[in-house]
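Check the record.
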Amino acid sequence: MIAVVGHADVTPESLGLLEAELVALLEGEPDGEPGVVRAGGGAPLAFARALRVAGRDLVVVIPTSGMVPALLPERDRVPTGELLLLAREVRLLTYDPVDRDACVGADEEIIAGCRRLVAVWDGSPSNGRDATAHLVAYARSRGVTVDVLWPAGTTRTGLRVAPGRR
């Protein structure tokens, strides 16, 4: 399986750039392996759309609390609706979607079960809000193949995202 992590605050214009790069990456691999994302906007949404174009299945991981889906932060609700429409499979994982550390732990669990990670990452270091650098290092330390993607022209809004978003 191929997982994706990355910045949630990419601009709407950048989603199209990311999607095109992700389609090219996916079409370069003949195995048709499915992709997995944690519910949310930004990189997961671009990856889900690319998977559809490439004819691959999508697995969406949504947070639960006591086996009941947890309420996502406001900014992630609409993108997650689209993810669920594109999904072939939905998996439940217990974590708090507004707790940064819980979301990083959920991403680590997803990455641990994958062969490959695609990181939509501008190369910035991890900080109190953005954990993409940490997740890339985590994947590499586990022997997971990592592809870093940041197409020319991709930009971030710079807006503070909810604590659980990358």
Confidence is low (pLDDT under 50) at residues 161-166.
